[in-house]
Amino acid sequence: MGCDVCGIFLNVQPNDRSTQFGLLYRTRALSRDFSAAGITLLKHGGTVAPLEERKVRELMQALELRADIRLAERWVLLAAAPVVNTYQSVNGYVRYDAYGLGDPFAILRYQLVNTKCLSPDTTGLLIHRLLVGAGVKAPLGRSDVTYLGERLHPDAQPGTGSWDALVSLEYAVRSGRNGLLFTALGRLNTADTHGVRLGHTASGTLELFRTFKLGAVQVMPSLGAYLETAGHDDLKGTEQEQTGGTTWFGSAGLRAYWKNWMLSATYQKALGWNIGDEMTATDTRVVAGLSYFLKNN
User: Fold this and answer.
1) In terms of CATH, what superfamily is 20-291?
2) pLDDT digits (tens, 9 = 90+) for 139-191
3) pLDDT score recorded for residue 123
4) Predicted pLDDT of residue 278
5) N or C end of the chain: which has fewer CB within 10 A?
6) What's the pLDDT at 102?
7) Cα gap 141→68, rounded to integer Å
8) Which positions ≥6 away from 182 have C-beta within 8 Å?
9) Which residues of the chain have pLDDT under 70?
């Protein structure tokens, strides 16, 4: 489900006219208790005895090197390359703990709108920013990782093994110290060499924020919601109806700016989900990053 193995995080930020480089850490905790009457094939971990109750716990982590490069007045290129860890235990026993390079991606974004106030006093004025983008995720990560001699399921691999198309939208509106941020991302997947096509995914975040000055530091706390949805996986032309689904989250974040540096952290708690019988449910997501801006016009 738009999972953090192959997930992509977008973050609208005030220094929108600056090139930045940074590190981004993403982690997702998942769990689900499958009863004895449940399914016998776990999407993320192979087969188990059909009458065994299963307590499945998963952790997905990624450390991502990224660059957000302003190419021209209206063109911005976001590129990133992650290192990924996937972990699963069933009834307290480790099923796999895999590491490897993930799939790099690039999104070229075009700035449709960026209104600027000509007066130093912006009180009561609405300032808008809108970017749309398209890009690609390349199958350059590991998709053949084994654990204890067994090849891992495609969902547990650091890379997907497929070329995937990406589309994005980012919108921010601000009046004085208050504002609203919205980001959306869609991923259209193709099949890998084994005929596995992960379900197409879409996700969106809506945040309300307020900025404060604390000496030389500017902080921006935010509250909002995050939604992600995925279609069914496809195996050699056969739709896997017990996959995919939708999860919705509450979200709280904090960004801090000092000189040319930005430190950010976002915590998201799943409030509900409607997912396929083979899916493990997300409990929490955490995203944290450190960025350096080359300039701040």
Assistant:
1) monomeric porin ompg (2.40.160.40)
2) 999 999 999 888 988 888 999 999 999 999 999 998 888 999 999 999 999 99
3) 54
4) 82
5) C
6) 95
7) 21
8) 12, 169, 170, 171, 172, 204, 205, 206, 207
9) 1-17, 36-52, 116-124, 296-297
User: Global pTM?
Assistant: 0.86
> For residue 77, what are its two tokens?
């290129």
